[in-house]
Specification:
It is a single chain. The protein contains 24 helices and no strands. The two termini are about 35 Å apart. It has about 500 residues and is mainly α. The longest helix is centred in the middle third of the chain and has 24 residues, at about 300-320. The protein is globular. The protein folds into three domains: about 1-270, no CATH class; about 270-370, Serine Threonine Protein Phosphatase 5, Tetratricopeptide repeat (Alpha Horseshoe); about 375-493.
Length: about 500
């Protein structure tokens, strides 16, 4: 078992799960401080004393969530029962092991919605339990899951090993949600390794394992659909897997076939299924195009890109007629609007349909803000106005004001580097971050955004304040290692 602490990478993806275009531009890469660019092995857990973390009340975290509490409790209890069966007597590592299991159940119900480092903490709890002697297979699998798509095998043999570990886990007694997570991790890490090694088309042993892994993934998905699992599980996880397969169309075809099979097995007539079909053609379109700027795309790439987006458009427009109350259909259409240059008025109409169907859906607001980024169809002023509208909702439970974070951060990187030095913008940003962090003080994701904004805007008093609170728990997908070092230097450390 190799040691790795996830810096909330999957949570950034959580913000983008339903908006496929976001994932096109997000590399599945861990911070440089976590996985060396050379791909060298990380120290083994037995070689280092694990970082200590105080056990906290995961059930209290779950209690504040606005929905799916019963599902969380069912998944938690099912997983704890599996653990208790294997550990009928008290052990020195029970507290840490059960905390990791609770966090796994939390994540597979809501993801890390508030950006609180759930996966990082899960890995820390698991490591602490393992250091005390725990070798429970479900716990070991949970740590590997906590690596998720931010960890890459160093060679094909290691990729095969991960696949075998996950296949074994998926045939065990763990809950279906954990089995889905197990197999999805194996697919994404296998593709990630082969993409980096440029062996996708060579059909190495690890790639040969994927059909069987995806078959087991489909079985778990079917069970979860029958169980009426939350949208994050039966829509968000498949959507994320499709995005993770963008580098290999053959695997993406296997995944969409598995999705269709899972829904067919359950006889479920669902707008989510059709939204996933649209998502598939969107991901296939971006796979054909590539993620570069327009001047890097060939005429043939553009042609296939447009054809596949047209297929997505046809599916989604027809689906909307049947499922007008399924917000994800309209959200996927915002992505189509971006790719096909359908214009701001068309985008706005789909945005309005999405929030009419679900006023609390942050992904609708996020996709609109993405459409209006300077690199696409807006200006810095357009983006500021968009995030002002999000903040004005004051919908902190569903964190809609926090669209400000990625929206303004993108302007800083692509439109106006000094945006946080503008008094009006800084006042909006600071008040929004402070309000959110007052409600969710554990959020390392948004505190990292706040720290970066203060640093870019040269608000040194806030830099010192937030740096002291955040310490080394910064989110490496928000702040690069170089930026964190620069901030550390700026505060005199």
């Amino acid at each position: 078992m190799k040691r790795i602490f996830v810096l909330a990478g999957i949570i950034v993806l959580g913000t983008a799960l339903v908006c496929g275009v976001y994932l096109t531009y997000l590399e599945f890469v861990a911070p440089a401080s976590v996985v060396a660019a050379s791909g060298q092995p990380q120290p083994s857990v037995t070689a280092l004393e694990p970082v200590q973390i105080a056990i906290y009340d995961v059930d209290a975290m779950a209690a504040r969530m606005p929905s799916s509490k019963d599902y969380y409790a069912k998944l938690r209890d099912e997983a704890l029962a599996v653990y208790s069966h294997g550990h009928p007597t008290s052990t020195p590592y029970d507290d840490e092991a059960k905390a990791a299991i609770r966090l796994g159940a939390y994540y597979m119900t809501w993801s890390d919605f508030y950006g609180e480092g759930v996966l990082r903490d899960l890995a820390l709890f698991q490591e602490s339990a393992e250091h005390k002697g725990c070798s429970d297979p479900m716990l070991c699998d949970l740590e590997t899951n906590a690596w998720d798509d931010t960890h890459y095998p160093n060679n094909d043999a290691r990729s095969v090993q991960i696949c075998n570990e996950m296949l074994t886990a998926a045939q065990g007694n763990s809950p279906a949600a954990f089995k889905l997570w197990d197999t999805q991790t194996a697919v994404i890490t296998t593709l990630s390794y082969n993409r980096r090694a440029q062996t996708l088309q060579l059909n190495p042993p690890s790639m040969q394992m994927l059909p069987k892994v995806i078959s087991l993934w489909e079985q778990s998905l079917a069970e979860l659909i029958k169980d009426k699992a939350p949208d994050y599980v039966i829509y968000g996880m498949p959507s994320k897997l499709l995005a993770g397969c963008q580098c290999d169309e053959a695997t993406m075809n296997l995944v969409i076939a598995a999705i269709d099979q899972a829904y067919n097995e359950t006889g479920t007539d669902s707008g989510l299924r059709v939204a996933l079909d649209g998502d598939y053609f969107i991901e296939m379109a971006w796979a054909a195009r590539g993620s570069g700027y327009a001047n890097t795309v060939s005429d043939q790439q553009s042609l296939v890109f447009d054809q596949r987006l047209s297929q997505a458009q046809g599916i989604l427009e027809t689906a909307f007629e049947k499922y007008p109350h399924e917000a994800n259909i309209s959200i996927e259409m915002i992505t189509v609007c971006l790719g096909k240059s359908l214009g701001r008025d068309t985008m706005e109409s789909w945005f309005q349909r999405a929030i009419k169907a679900d006023p609390n859906n942050i992904y609708a607001y996020s996709c609109k803000a993405y459409f209006l980024q300077p690199r696409w169809y807006g200006t810095p002023d357009d983006e500021v106005k968009s995030v002002q509208e999000c903040v004005a909702t004051q919908n902190w439970t569903f964190k809609i004001p926090m669209v400000l974070a990625s929206g303004l951060d993108s302007v800083a990187d692509n439109g106006d580097r000094d945006i946080f030095a503008h008094d009006e913008v800084w006042k909006l940003a600071e008040s929004t971050y402070r309000k959110y962090l007052e409600i969710y003080p554990r959020s390392t994701k948004y505190r990292s955004y706040f720290l970066r904004a203060a640093f870019l805007g040269n608000h040194q008093d806030v830099v010192r304040e937030q740096y002291k609170i955040l310490g080394k728990n910064w989110d490496g997908l928000i702040l690069s290692e170089e930026e964190y070092k620069a901030i550390t230097t700026s505060v005199g450390l």
